[in-house]
Design brief:
Helices cover 31% and strands 18% of the residues. The chain contains 15 helices and 17 strands. The protein has a seven-stranded mixed β-sheet, with helices on both faces. The protein is globular.
Length: 500
């Protein structure tokens, strides 16, 4: 294992209140095992992370929705407590973006990568990301940005149902709203209804071409870009099981070398001048074979510990080494290594792992967080089931929305793990285009015969009046109401954003 400068402590910052964020525990263990003093600024109430023997001290976090000034005040109090400069590691999007904005203001108390301008905020914004991909030639699902409910309905039909609906800045979604960062839309009416909640969500709604999941189609790439511009501490991973099934967090992943993906990532980070830790999510289009970038997270992904190499290096240790001006070693990859989140995939946690395996919660040298997780999880699952039943009984409108902490019941988990594959998503409606054309690429109506750029496409003109071949989902009649209501049950397990 590389020798870290143990004179320099680390401060992990997480603003969101998710008690089951195993990525924070991974960072605590990674740095703590190397002898670094670890401080955690996060919600400690009921969190298994606080039970880790590698936590030096837990500090109260900023409240959700805090201003940059309020977050800075919290970090200054922690810096005064720590009493010497520390490496600061944001663990969620809200933290990463706040730290990116503060930059020089934190220089007296913290060591940070020198990131160009507001780059972290630019790549985390899903609308901006589409434009970024277009500018550097990285495939990205075609994205439409409606400017009215009618345009949302028209865009959904033009892309070909089902489509993915995303909020441009998901970190602004208020807790308890029932809104999710990403949801699958199966009718134009649903697109209209979701658009109307834009003010509540805090950012614009995007509609994105749906790329169906399937075996070997979901991938992720983690890394740390250091001061020299070289990438360290990560690699390409294949997502074998996710929750929610088909597009959620990685429940089971494998370190799988992928030169094509590595080339794409180097092109992207090099063109942007990116510095720091990143977590990227990709989905391979089965028709074209192209890898489409779905998310760019400017912070560690929850499964980053998958990529601890034979020398003990991962992205968090690479960050600490680089910011303390220690040499970064040559990579020593361990392909085939597995990562398993036990509460989502218990059977995979018990299966043989010839190439090695990292468990999200359980560790022989730090057993308390694993025990605490199961204690809380057994209370969490019945509560979530009760809430879900309540939404179903409240009617279709309530049942269509769930939050990002929807629990996987033990019965569902055993089934998903035993099959070893994501739940098959509904096939998309056939989209217009010539034979051999990329089915994920379409133009808004009125621009036939041209192909859109990879970036977001605004719809400036009102949609045409419904014609004889317009689907009934676009019409506000009783039949559309009935159809939308009949699909309500399927929304409890809709997809959310990849990654975390």
């Amino acid at each position: 294992m590389q020798i870290l400068d143990t004179r320099v402590p680390a401060v992990l910052l997480r603003i969101d209140r998710n008690p089951f964020h195993h990525g924070t525990l991974g960072a605590v263990r990674s740095l703590g095992r190397a002898g670094v003093e670890v401080h955690v600024v996060a919600d400690a109430e009921g969190s298994p992370v606080r039970r880790s023997r590698f936590v030096c001290e837990m500090h109260p976090p900023p409240r959700p929705g805090s201003s940059t000034a309020e977050i800075a005040a919290v970090l200054r109090r922690v810096a005064a407590r720590v009493s010497r400069p520390a490496v600061l590691v944001p663990m969620d999007d809200a933290s990463a973006l706040a730290v990116g904005r503060m930059g020089e203001d934190l220089a007296d108390g913290y060591l940070l990568p020198r990131q160009p301008g507001a780059l972290a905020e630019r790549v985390a914004d899903k609308a901006e990301l589409a434009a970024v991909c277009a500018s550097v030639g990285v495939p990205h699902p075609v994205t439409l940005i409606p400017e009215s409910p009618a345009q949302a309905a028209a865009a959904a039909w033009q892309l070909g149902l089902p489509v993915m609906a995303k909020w441009s800045r998901p970190w602004l979604i208020p807790a308890g709203s029932g809104l999710r960062s990403t949801v699958m839309i199966r009718s134009a009416r649903e697109a209209q209804e979701l658009y109307l909640r834009g003010a509540e969500a805090g950012s614009p709604l995007l509609l994105q071409a749906f790329l169906p999941p399937g075996p070997d189609r979901d991938w992720f790439f983690h890394g740390y870009v250091g001061r020299s511009g070289a990438t360290h501490g990560g690699g390409a991973g294949r997502k074998r099981l996710s929750w929610p099934r088909g597009a959620g967090l990685t429940a089971v992943g494998h370190w799988t070398p992928n030169p094509e993906l590595e080339t794409l990532v180097e092109r992207l980070t090099g063109a942007l001048g990116y510095r720091g830790i990143f977590d990227l999510d990709f989905r391979r289009d089965a028709t074209t074979g192209h890898y489409h970038l779905l998310d760019f997270n400017p912070r560690p992904g929850a499964q980053f510990r998958l990529f601890e190499d034979a020398g003990g290096l991962d992205v968090v240790r690479a960050l600490h080494l680089d910011l303390t001006h220690r040499p970064l070693p040559e990579p020593a990859p361990r392909p085939g290594r597995a990562f398993v989140v036990e509460n989502y995939a218990p059977l995979d946690a018990l299966r043989p792992a010839p190439a090695g395996r990292e468990l999200a919660w359980h560790a022989p040298d730090d057993p308390a967080p694993g025990r605490a997780m199961w204690s809380r999880w057994t209370r969490h699952v019945p509560l979530r089931l009760t809430q879900r039943v309540g939404r179903l009984l409240s009617g279709p409108a309530a049942s269509r929305e769930t939050d990002d902490t929807t629990a996987l019941t033990p019965a569902q988990d055993v089934t998903a793990t035993a099959t070893g594959a994501a739940e098959e998503a509904p096939a998309p409606v056939e989209r217009p285009g010539a034979a051999g054309q990329d089915p994920a690429v379409v133009r808004p109506r009125g621009e036939a015969g041209t192909r859109p750029e990879a970036g977001p496409v605004h719809i400036p003109a009102p949609p045409p009046a419904p014609s004889a071949d317009t689907p009934s989902d676009l019409l506000a009649g009783p039949r559309a109401e009935s159809r939308a209501g009949s699909r309500a049950d399927s929304h409890a397990d809709d997809e959310k954003a990849s990654s975390r």
